[in-house]
Design goal:
coiled coil, about 0% strand, Xylanolytic transcriptional activator regulatory domain-containing protein, DNA binding, XnlR_reg_dom, zinc ion binding, two-stranded antiparallel ribbon, globular
Length: about 675
């Protein structure tokens, strides 16, 4: 019951009559007496009560009453008690959750991301040690790059000492053209090549904005090198050289005052620079800072097609390439940050880039550009653009009001599932048509690489449209959405070895490794601790073995994250081996597990009690938010908090982006 004004006045009078007994005088700072402070608070309460009374009277006045519709039953207009109205009206689902991430509250509306985030907190004890302050394999987002763009120190630095040596300039350019440009085509190679030639003799002879672009280009080139290649070509550590080029990019941009002097070259620089930072920087901050690129592009009208703006064919085509790369990267960064979609405005009409080579584009020419039939250097990028279109189309089909993706009932998700199946079929048809017209294995390495990725992408998306209760393993190995997630993260893993091998042969393994995340690998391995037997478990161990076959840095247990992951693998294998031994089956320890045991100095007798039944994992509070049977925007494309690359945590895991767990 609320105290009325009379009660408050009585309380004040009673306090005023309290006899004060003087105590021992203590020298201290002057402050208000407790009685005075309390009286002031009571006075404030009185004032608030008066305001509340006035507001209540105003709200209940006849002028503020909504007119009742004609023909309404009189009883329907009777006021409903507050408690009853609260029980009758259910708040609408927000379609997201607030997640506490290392003391920071983050909004996430991706079901898989939230679920894995919660699951990680539930299974951390499987790998944590008793050493205080020891880092965890589940991610420690770095603040080492907090000066990613905005620092007072950069405008005062000189770019002269940061530029590559002249002997390296053209070599890095050749590497970019061969390994990076086919993946991320945001520059016009003939135009930039003339600037590279000038920079190789006198770096200061080219404009400052062009210097910034070359720094970003060279950073991508170094990113595509292995550590051994970097030492052989550059005579330097790969990470040290990359850090130097990042500083050069930031310094040139700061000197340019790019927020006030932006153009196409600045956008190209920022796109390449942020791409090179992926997996080395806080994923949430990467998405936020990526919004800067979106805003700059929109300010320059890149969201409107150049034909409608009366621009030249060259500028129109380059703007299309840049805009669609922005859409792709922003969508990817949003998903990695735990959001279900990019949140890009829908009022853009920029057409998809055409199937043309750079030699078909001439700066300043007014001649129209016609797409080529057959393969071009745009092959892989056209795949990416179709994927970006798929993401934007999926966002428009996703209706939060009609379907709650957090629901456990597959029947309620049936409309969404049907729409997603249609969407995947549309994607598959467009990719098949693209492949028939413009992709040819004899046209170069990028086409071979593209052909290897497409079947896995489509198979993954198709299997994810199958509702949980229609999965072949339902009732035997899949009992809840936690089990279904375990299968989801392995979809495509059966052909992972082929992806690695093809990427090595074609020179694009850097791209595969660049999107590899340790966090999700740790999640899968921790799940194997709880699932020692079963067909899904067999597939999971095949996946882990493939990863260790190609990601050899995981064997370096001198780095804490890799040591933590190694301990988790050993624990999971001990559980599996013991359960099989109880069933009378002897398992041979895989070579990579033996190597991890030797590196850790840990015999295979270390065992962890399996959690739950060997066949079934019970649902816990941490599993209440598992993803739907298929969330086209969230189930598969998510990843977890970043690994600190600067501390040696080289971003392996699944490739939680646009092409599933391997890309």
């Amino acid at each position: 019951m609320r105290p009325d004004n009379a009660a408050l006045r009585a309380l004040r009078q009673g306090m005023a009559q309290v006899e004060c007994i003087e105590g021992t005088r203590i020298t201290t700072r002057t402050r208000r007496r407790p009685q005075q402070e309390l009286l002031e608070r009571l006075a404030r309460c009185e004032e608030l009560l008066k305001q509340q009374k006035q507001e209540t009277s105003s709200t209940n006045s006849p002028m503020n009453q909504s007119p009742q519709p004609r023909g309404t039953d009189e009883s329907a207009s009777e006021p409903v008690p507050v408690e009853e109205s609260q029980t009758r009206v259910k708040p609408k689902s927000t379609g997201g959750k607030m997640v506490n991430d290392k003391g920071k509250v983050q909004f996430m509306d991706s079901q898989a991301w939230v679920n894995i985030h919660e699951e990680i907190h539930a299974i951390k004890e499987l790998i944590e040690t008793d050493e205080p302050g020891e880092s965890s394999v589940f991610g420690s987002e770095s603040s080492a790059n907090d000066d990613v763009l905005f620092s007072e120190a950069f405008p005062t630095r000189s770019v002269e000492d940061l530029r590559p040596e002249p002997i390296h300039t053209f070599k890095l350019w050749q590497i970019f053209v061969a390994r990076v440009n086919p993946i991320v085509k945001v520059i016009h190679v003939p135009t930039v090549q003339s600037q590279v030639m000038s920079a190789s003799t006198d770096f200061n002879s080219i404009p400052l904005r062009s210097q910034a672009l070359l720094f970003a280009i060279f950073a991508m080139s170094v990113l595509s090198l292995t550590k051994d290649e970097a030492l052989e070509i550059l005579g330097s550590s790969r990470d040290d050289y990359l850090r130097r080029l990042h500083v050069g990019t930031k310094t040139a941009l700061a000197k340019l005052d790019f927020l006030n002097n932006y153009d196409m070259v600045v956008l190209q620089t920022l796109l390449l620079y942020f791409f090179s930072l992926e997996n080395t920087y806080n994923s949430h901050a990467t998405w936020i800072l990526g919004g800067l690129i979106v805003r700059l592009a929109q300010k320059m009208g890149y969201h409107r097609d150049g034909e409608t703006l009366g621009l030249t064919p060259y500028e129109t085509e380059m703007r299309r390439r840049i805009w669609w790369q922005i859409v792709l990267q922003d969508s990817k960064n949003a998903l990695v940050s735990g959001l279900s979609h990019s949140m890009l405005l829908k009022n853009w009409d920029t057409k998809m880039p055409q199937n043309v080579n750079d030699v078909d584009l001439f700066p300043g020419s007014s001649e129209p550009i016609y797409p080529r039939e057959g393969p071009t250097e745009m092959g892989f990028c056209l795949y990416s653009y179709h994927l970006a279109k798929f993401l934007t189309d999926a966002e428009s089909l996703y209706d939060r009001e009609s379907t709650n993706p957090w629901d456990d009932d597959d029947l309620l998700l049936l409309p969404l599932t049907q729409r997603n199946k249609q969407l995947v079929e549309r994607l598959e048809n467009s990719l098949n048509e693209l492949e028939e017209r413009h992709i040819d294995a004899y046209a170069g390495n990028i086409h071979v690489f593209s052909l290897a990725l497409r079947p896995t992408l489509v198979a993954k998306m198709r299997e994810m449209t199958i509702p949980m209760r229609q999965q072949p393993e339902w009732g035997t190995e899949i009992f809840n959405k936690k089990d279904n997630l375990f299968k989801t993260v392995m979809i495509g893993g059966d052909v992972l070895r082929n992806i690695y091998e093809v990427s090595i042969q074609t020179g694009f393994v850097w791209f595969v490794k660049h999107h590899f995340r340790l966090d999700v690998l740790a999640f899968l391995t921790a799940q194997l601790c709880q699932r020692p037997i079963g067909t899904l478990t067999d597939r999971g161990w095949g996946f882990v073995e493939t990863v260790y076959s190609f990601e050899d840095q995981l064997l370096d247990v001198t780095q804490r994250p890799f040591a933590q992951q190694a301990k988790l693998v050993v624990k999971a294998w001990d559980v599996r081996q013991r359960v099989h031994a109880q069933a009378g089956t002897v398992l041979e320890t895989p070579g990579f597990v033996r190597r991890l045991e030797e590196a850790l100095g840990t015999p295979s007798t270390r065992a962890v009690e399996p959690v739950g039944s060997p066949h079934r994992t019970e649902e816990t509070e941490a599993d209440q938010s598992l993803e739907s049977a298929f969330d086209v925007l969230g189930s598969d494309w998510q990843a977890l908090p970043d690994i600190d690359y600067s501390q040696g945590q080289a971003g392996p895991g699944f490739y939680g982006n646009e092409f599933g767990p391997f890309y």
